Amino acid sequence: MMKNIKLWLGIVGVVIAVYILLISCYEAAWNVLTMSGHFNGIAGIVVAVLLLAGSVVRIGMRGAEDDSGSIISLVLFACGAAIAFATTVIYHYMQNWAIICLVMGIVSVLMIMWKNAMAGK
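Above: the chain's sequence. Below: its structure in token form.
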């Protein structure tokens, strides 16, 4: 059951990360072409890559006996959320991406707690 949840949440994370990556690449290219001086495209690319990496780790390590996959994905999601929250002051839409990373990190914590609760029985 837990393996299927990790798989589906990982797939959802990959899809969202690809969407964020496409938007951020467009914005980064637009910022370069217009010489606007904004860095929202680069920040979005970094957040998308961290979200993608955390989701791929979640998918790849879903069958691991220990919590290493969930811990690694938690760190990646937390870094993505921190970067997105830091840029929210300037670019308000980044708050949505920060919340997505935060929710994925919370799910990683819940998976660790669930696995430890099942091991204790």
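Residues 2-34 form the longest helix (33 residues).
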